[in-house]
Design a protein that fits this description.
GO cellular component, one term: membrane
CATH topology: Rossmann fold
Order of helices and strands: EHEHEHEHEHEHEHH
Number of strands: 7
Distance between the termini: 45 Å
Oligomer: single chain
Protein name: Short chain dehydrogenase
Number of domains: 1
Organism: Nocardiopsis sinuspersici
CATH superfamily: NAD(P)-binding Rossmann-like Domain
CATH architecture: 3-Layer(aba) Sandwich
Family: Belongs to the short-chain dehydrogenases/reductases (SDR) family.
Strand content: 15-25%
Number of helices: 8
Structural class: alpha/beta
Radius of gyration: 17 Å
Pfam family, one: adh_short
Helix content: 40-55%
Largest sheet: 7 strands, parallel
Length: 249
């Protein structure tokens, strides 16, 4: 028997794919969305081989295509009959210091991470309002806690915006709605696999996502993951002078 249905975007690799594996192991059916369908097909085969009772629906989706976001979310809701949780995970890590001639990269990140997240949130909320229940999960970043410099500037700003959308929905107190924001620290994923140097506090994908899944299952309003060392770091980052934060990032 299914524990419920979870829709995950950006599910072809990295954190999204690992969340799919771990939520399937917990007993959830899955609606997985991403641009790269071949990788999702392989993921579905892996999940259904390990958990034959799980239902896994796949949809090709570019979250910067507004119309497609609404169509795919509605289609999955119809296919399953209900969507219990939506995880807004699709994201992009491109970027450059402002004024360095890479507005194209910064704009692409902004459109994917913020405008795309807005479209996903709108589509999810239409479903949840109709159902009168649901759990919206926004995947933010520890970088969202303060303004970041150079190539991280726009990325951090988009992730702060995602968290603000979530807080606004919590303030609205929509009946039957739970909203969670997850702030991952350094978790190895496809987005950062090009980073060759050893990064302090970096954990492997499976370990990091296990912390994310645990926080999501508890419907935590706000979760810094893994909790150690990111919960105390998050507390400090919100309060330290910018001159100190600059040295930490």
């Amino acid at each position: 028997m299914s524990k419920g249905t979870i829709l995950i975007t950006g599910a072809s690799a990295g954190l999204g794919a690992e969340m799919a594996r771990q939520f399937a192991a917990l007993g959830y059916d899955l609606g997985l969305c991403a641009r790269r369908t071949a990788k999702m097909e392989a993921l579905r085969e892996e999940i259904t081989a390990a958990h034959p009772d799980r239902r896994v629906e796949l949809r090709a989706l570019d979250v910067t295509d507004d119309e497609a976001v609404f169509e795919v979310f509605k289609d999955l809701a119809a296919a399953f009959g209900t969507v219990d949780r939506v995880i807004v995970n699709a994201g992009l890590g491109k970027g450059a210091a402002l004024g360095k001639g890479r507005y194209d990269a910064n704009r692409q990140t902004a459109m994917t991470n913020f405008v795309g997240a807005l479209a996903q949130s709108e589509a999810a909320m239409e479903i949840f309002r109709a159902q009168e229940r649901g759990h919206l999960v926004m995947i933010s970043s520890m970088s969202a806690l303060r303004g970041m410099r150079k190539a991280m500037n726009v990325y951090a700003a988009t992730k702060a915006g995602v968290a603000a959308i979530a807080e606004g929905l919590r303030s609205e107190r929509v009946p039957g709605l739970d909203v969670s924001v997850v702030y991952p620290g350094y978790i190895r994923s496809e987005m950062n696999e090009h980073v060759q140097q050893r990064t302090r506090f970096m954990v492997d994908t499976e370990t990091g996502v296990r912390s994310m899944v645990a926080a999501i299952e508890k419907r935590r309003v706000r979760a810094y993951v893994p909790a150690w060392p990111w919960a105390p770091i998050g507390f400090a980052m919100r309060r330290l002078p910018l001159s100190v934060v600059r040295k930490l990032t």
